[in-house]
Design a protein that fits this description.
six-stranded parallel beta sheet, globular, Isochorismatase family protein, Isochorismatase-like_sf
Length: 183
């Protein structure tokens, strides 16, 4: 079964926001880089996704120059697509599904910024489209929302996705399985 790692919104735009000070894991690039290395070693496709809000004048407006991968991240290798989305999930406003279909991908490994927003939404849509989904929680991050801590948001996300939309895994679990993980 062919897999693809989808790296969602791990971008400088978030560092420009005041909420970055409260992000649960400001070193999100570390676990994401481990996943990228694992995917490449396994021969899996790696697809990079960046959120954009053209014309907004904000941190996600490409004209502001922050809609780029975090500096600490591995750079996309030749042949690894970099998609730009304007919706919460990585499918609706991109050619992601076409790329996956053409490559024969049946399983997605998802990670990125805003555990409960763009990463969760991509996992749900991917599941609805028939993909097996592995949600790598420790390669996601978010910040508190209102009275909810980042930790409680992550717990809630795991609870609603587990065994319904995705298999929940950690980077270390996937590394230990190397070559054998499936949704």
């Amino acid at each position: 079964m062919k897999r693809a790692l989808i790296v969602i919104d791990v971008q400088e735009s978030f560092r420009a926001l005041p909420s970055w000070e409260r992000i649960a894991n400001p070193k999100i690039a570390d676990p994401v880089n481990r996943l990228v290395g694992l995917a490449r070693a396994e021969g899996d496709q790696v697809i990079w996704v960046l959120h954009t809000e053209p014309g907004s004048g904000g941190a996600f407006d490409p004209e502001q120059g922050r809609t780029r991968l975090l500096e600490e991240l591995e750079r996309p290798a030749p042949g690894e697509p970099v998609l730009h989305k304007t919706a919460h999930n990585a499918f609706t406003t991109t050619r992601l599904q076409r790329l996956l279909t053409e490559a024969g991908v049946r399983e997605l490994v998802v990670c990125g910024i805003r555990t409960e927003q763009c990463v969760e939404t991509t996992a749900r849509v991917g599941s609805d489209l028939g993909y097996g989904v592995v949600f790598v929680t420790d390669a996601t991050t978010t910040h508190p929302i209102g009275a909810l801590s980042a930790e409680s948001i992550v717990e809630r996300t795991e609870a609603v996705l587990r065994d319904r939309f995705a298999r929940i895994a950690t980077v270390a679990e996937l590394e230990a399985e190397s070559g054998a993980f499936t949704a």
